[in-house]
Amino acid sequence: MSDNTEVFKHVLHKRIGNTEYWREIVIFEEGPFVFRVVQELQLNLIDSTGTLKAVRPPIPSRLEWICSSKEEATQQALRCLQQSKDDDWLLPPTASSAA
């Protein structure tokens, strides 16, 4: 995706027990009238020594939507963010996002 322009990026965090989850929501502009919204999930287990270890999620870890306008892509990203909020996802302390 190196030719794509990142229009929006938002990273969220959630911790349940000894598992840390990261959700990233990004809008890419791929060309005229082509915007891709990507929601990706990553998770890490914290072992007994406190070390984070990457783990492959047991569920689909990447969802994508193709939209024909920036407004449509923004609405889809906002739906993803609202669902994240409803599911108690939080902004990590050092997170930054751009609109």
Based on the model shown, name its key terms.
99 residues, alpha+beta, 48% strand
Global geometry: elongated
- Total strands: the figure is 5
- Major sheet characteristics: 5 strands, antiparallel
- β content, as a range? over 45%
Total DSSP helices:
1
What is the alpha-carbon Rg in Å? 15 Å
**Domain count:** 1
Helix proportion:
10-25%
What topology does this entry show?
Elements: E1 5-16, E2 19-31, E3 34-46, E4 52-55, E5 62-67, H1 70-86
Antiparallel strand pairs: 1-2, 2-3, 3-4, 3-5
Detailed description of the structure:
By secondary structure, this protein is an alpha+beta fold. The chain has one domain (5-86). Helices cover 17% and strands 48% of the residues. The protein has one helix at 70-86, and strands spanning 5-16, 19-31, 34-46, 52-55, 62-67. Strands 1, 2, 3, 4 and 5 form a 5-stranded antiparallel sheet that branches. Strand 3 (34-46) and strand 4 form a beta hairpin.
In short:
The protein is α+β, with helices and mostly antiparallel strands and 99 residues long. Helix content is 17%, strand content 48%.
